Amino acid sequence: MRHGKKFNHLGRKTAHRKAMLANMACSLIEHKRINTTVAKAKALKQFVEPMITKSKEDTTHNRRIVFRKLRQKEAVSELFRDVAVKVGDRPGGYTRIIKLGSRLGDSADMAMIELVDYNTIYNAGKATKKKSTRRSRRGGGSKAAAPATKTKANKEEE
Q1: CA 70 to mean position of chain CA atoms
Q2: 66 near 76, Cβ under 8 Å?
Q3: Which DSSP helix (H) or strand (E) runs through 101?
Q4: What integer pLDDT is reported at residue 108 of this predicted model?
Q5: Positive or negative: CA dihedral 58, 46, 97, 107
Q6: How far apart, in whole angstroms, are the C-alpha atoms of residue 40 and residue 47?
Q7: How many CB atoms lie within 10 A of CB 152?
Q8: With contact defined as beta carbons under 8 Å apart, do 83 and 1 qualify?
Q9: 33-37 and 109-115: which strand pairing?
C-alpha cells in the first residue's frame, strides 16, 4: 500500500536523497540552470522553491532555516544576496522545467531546470511591468463598468 507517500523517493534512502537534493539546489543557485532527469527536476522544484520564498525576507532566522537544508555557506549567501533581489516581486513559480528528450545511455527522460528570472531568452520580448491583481469575488469590477457607461452616454446623445 502507498498510504502517505506524497513525494518521489527517487530510489534512494533518506540521507542520500536529502544530500543529493541539497547539492542539486546549490548547483542550481550557483549556475542558474542545470540538466538532470525529469523526476529529479520535479523533486528539486519542490525542494528549492520554499527556500527562495524564505530568502525574500533577509532575517537571521530565515538564513538559518535555509542553511539547515542547503549546508553550503556560499550558496546561502548568493541566494539571499542575488537571487532574492531578482525574484522579489514574483509571488511564486521561481523555477521552470524544460524537457530535453531522452538520454542516450539509458533512455531516461532528461530536463533542464532553471531559475525563471535569469533566462534572458524568454524574458527578452516581455516588458517589465508589475501586474496588479485584485482578488475579489465580484466579476465585473470597475473595468467592466466603464465601457457600459460610455455606451449609455452615447445613446443619450443620439
Answers
A1: 17
A2: yes
A3: strand 95-102
A4: 96
A5: positive
A6: 10
A7: 9
A8: no
A9: antiparallel
Instruction: Using the CB atoms, write b or e for 18-36: b if 16+ within 10 Å.
Output: eebbbebbbbbbeebebeb
Give the chain's domains with CATH numbers. 14-130 (3.90.1030.10)
Task: With CA atoms as reference, report the closest residue to 115 among 84, 141, 139, 70.
Answer: 84
Q: Exposed/middle/buried for 142, CB within 10 Å: 0-12, 13-18, 19+? A: exposed
- Sign of the alpha-carbon torsion through 6, 7, 10, 13: negative
How far is 50 from 132, CA to CA, in rounded Å?
Answer: 23
In single-letter form, the type of residue at position 103 comes to R
Angle between helices 38-55 and 14-31 (to 10 degrees): 70
Query: How wide is the angle at C-alpha 93 spanned by C-alphas 112 and 128, nearest 5°?
Result: 100
Q: HSE (CB half, 13 Å, CA atoms) of 133?
A: 5
pLDDT at 128: 56
Per this entry, what is the length of the chain?
Answer: 158
pLDDT in tens, 39-89: 999 999 999 999 999 999 999 999 999 999 999 999 999 999 999 999 889
28 neighbors 113 (Cβ within 8 angstroms): yes
Report the alpha-carbon distance of residue 149 to residue 158 in Å, rounded.
15
